[in-house]
Amino acid sequence: MHIDKIKINNFKNYISCEVNFSEKINFLYGKNGAGKTNLLDAIHYLSFGKSAINKFDNDNINHKNNFFSLEGCFSNNMVYKCTYEKSNSKKIFENNKKYNQIKKHIGKIPVVFLSPYDINLIRNYSTERRKFFDQILSQTSYKYLENLLSYNRLLKQRNAYLKRINNIEMIERDIIKSYDDKMINLNKSIQDYRLKEIENFTKIFNKNSLKINDEDLKYRIEYFSNFSYNMDTSIYDQNFEKDFFTKKTNIGIHNDDYLFKMDKNLIKRSGSQGQQKTFIISLKLSEFEVLKNNLNIKPILLLDDVFHKLDDNKIDTLIEYLLDKKFSQIILSDSIDERLSLLKNKLIESNVIRINKGEVDER
Ligand SMILES: Nc1ncnc2c1ncn2[C@@H]1O[C@H](COP(=O)(O)OP(=O)(O)O)[C@@H](O)[C@H]1O
Ligand SMILES: [Mg+2]
Q: Which residues contact 189 (CB under 8 A, 6 or more apart)?
């Protein structure tokens, strides 16, 4: 899959702009603050119907205006358009036909976005890592997505009930039991799929990280859960008092984590910035491969500031890797002048797009 052209109106620092992309490697070059990340985010927006960076859509509208619109022409001869007006709902169109539900658009344009913010996957809490894997798993199985949505809804209700009742004697065990009965089965099916897919993911990850990493270190991912398959609803009974006093459900797949390690230690604690970045790059390139294998489409690969903080050896290794035929379109950004000439020699036939203050100059 590739994007041929994007038209941007009033999205972040772009007022009105049209960019053509090559179907292979595109190199966005511009100073800090020029709008490289914003352009990549516009492509992400067309794919997922949301920004990879801003939580609130109002923040994506150019400060001087009250709406934005994005339009992309893609290699499958489809034109997708997203519009958002202040205090109005967002709309997504496929060949001028509006979707009645935005979730129907998800999965039409597979995109993998690697951004400097991804370092939070290592540094932050388990929520970020679960979100990362859940987003992949939900794209490869609609059933998984449905189970996860049901589980999260039940969990919210169960916890709300625990919070609402102040006296343990007043808890109606039948109510709790009705949640437990449903949740135990969902725990099992969600964990089942996670275990299966994480095994597949780590196989690909181990292979990729060995290629990208030029040091004698092993990067690893370990799945961790306080739920195990042989548990039944009695586990909720055993934890009931704790659940009541902590006002939350203590056992279950909502606490799962994926431990990111370098050799035997957490990379969060022992990895240098460059090593952490290499880990994240391996993770994202594995995401690319898993989606490609499952969906039979090569996702568009967006690499924002990907060479930053990497030494020359790591940059060379990464470039070699990116030249592999398994990739389709790659759009990468950088702000260092010397790197542009270095990369132009290596990434032959790359399309250079120069960006300056929200305007684009193609050469
Ligand atoms: N809603 C907005 N309206 C106008 N400008 C914005 C908006 N959101 C971000 N910007 C501007 O976009 C610029 C950052 O663009 P960005 O794509 O992150 O740059 P870079 O090329 O360094 O990746 C900043 O100057 C910022 O002020
Ligand atoms: Mg940037």
A: 147
**Nearest ligand atom owner, CA of 62:** 1
Q: Are 3 and 137 within one domain?
A: no
Residue 333 Cα, ligand 2 centroid: separation in angstroms? Answer: 8
Query: Is residue 138 lining ligand 1, measured as CB closer than 6 Å?
Result: no
Indicate if 218 and 358 belong to the same structural domain.
no
User: In sequence order, what are the residues at sequence separation of 6 or more whose Cβ sits closer than 8 angstroms to the Cβ of residue 140?
Assistant: 197, 290, 291, 294, 295
Decide whether any atom of ligand 1 lies within 6 Å of the 36 Cβ: yes
CB contact at 8 A, 17 and 358:
yes
The domain tally of the chain equals 2
pTM over 0.70: yes
pLDDT of residue 362: 62
Ligand 1 and 30: CB distance under 6 A: yes
Helix ranges (H only) for the chain are 36-48, 120-123, 126-140, 142-164, 173-212, 234-238, 240-246, 267-270, 273-295, 312-322, 337-346
Q: Are 84 and 12 in contact (CB under 8 A)?
A: no
60: confidence class by pLDDT, cuts 50, 70, 90? very high
Query: What are the tens digits of pLDDT across the range 105-132?
Result: 877 899 999 999 999 999 999 999 999 9
Domain boundary among 295, 319, 354: 295
- Tell me which of 11, 32, 38 to substitute to probe ligand 1's pocket, judged by most ligand atoms within 8 Å of the beta carbon: 38
Ligand 1 atom with least separation from CA of 38: 17
Nearby residues of 72 by Cβ (< 8 Å), 6 or more positions away:
3, 5, 6, 7, 43, 46, 79, 80, 81, 109
Can you give the residue range of the structural domain that contains 282? 119-295
